[in-house]
From TrEMBL:
<comment type="similarity">
    <text>Belongs to the sigma-70 factor family. ECF subfamily.</text>
</comment>
<dbReference type="InterPro" id="IPR013249">
    <property type="entry name" value="RNA_pol_sigma70_r4_t2"/>
</dbReference>
<dbReference type="InterPro" id="IPR014305">
    <property type="entry name" value="RNA_pol_sigma-G_actinobac"/>
</dbReference>
<keyword id="KW-0805">Transcription regulation</keyword>
<dbReference type="Pfam" id="PF12680">
    <property type="entry name" value="SnoaL_2"/>
</dbReference>
<dbReference type="InterPro" id="IPR007627">
    <property type="entry name" value="RNA_pol_sigma70_r2"/>
</dbReference>
<keyword id="KW-0731">Sigma factor</keyword>
<dbReference type="InterPro" id="IPR013325">
    <property type="entry name" value="RNA_pol_sigma_r2"/>
</dbReference>
<dbReference type="InterPro" id="IPR036388">
    <property type="entry name" value="WH-like_DNA-bd_sf"/>
</dbReference>
<feature type="domain" description="SnoaL-like">
    <location>
        <begin position="220"/>
        <end position="276"/>
    </location>
</feature>
<dbReference type="InterPro" id="IPR037401">
    <property type="entry name" value="SnoaL-like"/>
</dbReference>
<dbReference type="InterPro" id="IPR039425">
    <property type="entry name" value="RNA_pol_sigma-70-like"/>
</dbReference>
<keyword id="KW-0804">Transcription</keyword>
<feature type="domain" description="RNA polymerase sigma factor 70 region 4 type 2">
    <location>
        <begin position="145"/>
        <end position="197"/>
    </location>
</feature>
<dbReference type="Pfam" id="PF04542">
    <property type="entry name" value="Sigma70_r2"/>
</dbReference>
<comment type="subunit">
    <text>Interacts transiently with the RNA polymerase catalytic core formed by RpoA, RpoB, RpoC and RpoZ (2 alpha, 1 beta, 1 beta' and 1 omega subunit) to form the RNA polymerase holoenzyme that can initiate transcription.</text>
</comment>
<dbReference type="InterPro" id="IPR032710">
    <property type="entry name" value="NTF2-like_dom_sf"/>
</dbReference>
Amino acid sequence: MSAELLHRARSGDREAFAELVEPYRTELHLLCYRMLGSLQDAEDTLQEALLAAWMGLEGFEGRSSIRTWLHRITTNRCLNALRTTSRRPAAAVTAATPVAGWVPELSHLGEVPWLQPYPDLLLDGLPDGAPGPEARYEAREAVSLAFMTALQLLPPNQRAVLLLRDVFGYRAAEAADLLGLTESAVNSALKRARATLDASRSAEPPAPAPGSAQEVALTDRFVAAFLSHDVEALIALMTDDVWVRMPPLAFEYRGLDDARRFFAAVHPHRSQITHMVPTRANGHPAWGEYARDPVTGLLHCIGLLVVAYAGDRVRELTHFEIGIAAMFGLPRTMRDQGVFQ
């Protein structure tokens, strides 16, 4: 940050302010997403935070870095949003609730139905490594669906503390200053938050590196099995404790037996899917799912599928509603040879 740029911004130069905050926009957007679990809410809250920063720039005294100052404003805006904004609770569901004509038996009701995926395209330029010796998670690991799902189970203050300490690498005293807490309160919240996240982590082998030959091979096998509509071929690719999720519905299925029953139950619906358009979400392979209209022959997007791997197996499949697909640049309608509209 140059003194000249800060001076221009303080003098009312909006372009200078935009240049001042641009290096931190991606990590600020991710901070909002991790806190709120929603891509839409993250965008709205980031805009509010940047407006607050613009309006309060005269109050920036330079005792901390501009990055730390922006983290303070953004984190507290997220905390305010979590305290005052009603979340998006899914409609109450039970095992007897019919969905699209089928009633598969549930193995679990999810606790974080509002979680949305995050496009990998928005991660461009994000550093691969941890931001400092205090951090426990690399930046990209801390956006995986497993991490995000566990994070949403934490109370807001624990969530903020864990992100500031273990993702952004702030020391306890620094995090306490950012949040207006005592250092002992930060340490206590961090201990509880780490215990929750550690309990949610599995001992499964790591996923293949993104874009590696191993990931490409596994992805090709998965797509072939998925589009063949062969339930047993699909089940053969899964870990023993595979998860199948469908937010915003609170339906969750765990294990091979429940996954098999689920895919058998939804076969009439799933067999309509004939095309999958690749993308990536939260560091995982993902696809727009397209079903053919029997009258027009056009392909219509019916949702977004995100798959997480463990070693050479699928450990989680998450189907997101169609509204999410637009955030990934996926067209609503396609012809076989390209986009229609």
